[in-house]
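Q: Got one fold?
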Amino acid sequence: MTNRLWPADAVGGAPAYSGRALRQTQAPFAFGATAGRPLGAHSGVRPGTSTTTVTASTTAWSCAPHAGLLDVQTAAEAGPYTYAIDATVSGALTASNASNPRTDLVYVQVTDAAEDGAAPGQAPVVTVGYIAGTASATAPTPATPVRSIPLAKINVPKTGGGNPTVTWIAPYAVAAGGFLPVWDQTERDALAKSEPLAIWRLDKHWAELWNGSGWEVIGRHAARNTRRVVTTGQNSPGGLILEQLTVPASPQAQRVNWNIDGLISPSAAGRAGVGVTSTAGTITQPSAVRMYTQVGQQYYGYSRRGWVDVPANSSPTITFTSEADVGSDWQVTIETETLAAGQF
């Protein structure tokens, strides 16, 4: 049968539902359809699953209850399995090596003879498994078995090196249209890209959106949007770094708008202001960096605005520096906002 409708009452015994049919009809609710797997999904555990779901001692490992989604069969039309582990699963941990550390793997796997031909005659089952890695100086992580997703790495030191530690590495599954948590840029870049596609970078703690040609960060966060209130000591010299930020690189061009407002008090007649430099890109700003005062020891209003156009794949450091030919006092607010190509 090539067309499926669910749920519907049977008439004359049709429709009749197989496991595959039911998986196909739940696919619309899951994130991860691609041209190659239009009935597929992005495999992973539910967001919110504890990062301590897998634990280990020197002799045993265990996996606590959790749930997830598995699109792991070869056939593109197989559809995604939902699964649940409702009781703690545990097993023996291979003894440590006397000379080298080792990385072990805990994973979750589907076996369904109707789809994969594995274990003929066995009822379909989901299992939590464990693989001991190879002890060596580099301690490589074992390959994830077929029809599986990784849950955690167990880092086993050489004998006498202390207790094993666990690194949670499970991918995440979300509903269609949701923000997909990813561990890093490598996982992000491996995603099939089509609009709309939104992710949450667990390594950066920010959201990114695929706009059809590149990734752009969305929302306000410290790495790309800053607000700093700066108050210097009385009669400070020029050349003080008032603010400095490094803009994360993007595959697209970016523009960093900056806005300086506040008060400056020169100690005597003279000039004072705030200079802006960038290690990459083009700065656009008013020509007059410093204001001139004939009477010192009074506060004068100061305001400057400008921007830095940053080339694609560049990560410049932008520095805001006090400039003066007499000792001065700065009380200014420096704000920056980074925009992706298409936003300016």
